[in-house]
Amino acid sequence: MATPVEPRESATVILVRPAVRAAESPSPQPSPRGRGGSGQGEWTPGGGATPYEIFMVRRPAGSNFAPDVYVFPGGSLQADDWPPGAHPPADLSAAAAHARLGGSAKAGLDTPEGSLALWINALRELYEEAGVLLARDARGAWVALDEPETARRFAVHRASVASGEMSLWELARREGLTLAPGALRYWAHWITPEAAKHRFDTRFFLALMPPRQEALHCGAQTVPEALACTPETTDGVWIAPDVALRRHAAHEFPLVFATLSHLQRLAMFPTLEALWAHTENKPVVTVLPRMEVDVTPPRIVIPPEVAECW
Question: Residue 84: what are its φ and ψ, rounded to 5°?
Answer without folding.
Answer: -90, 115
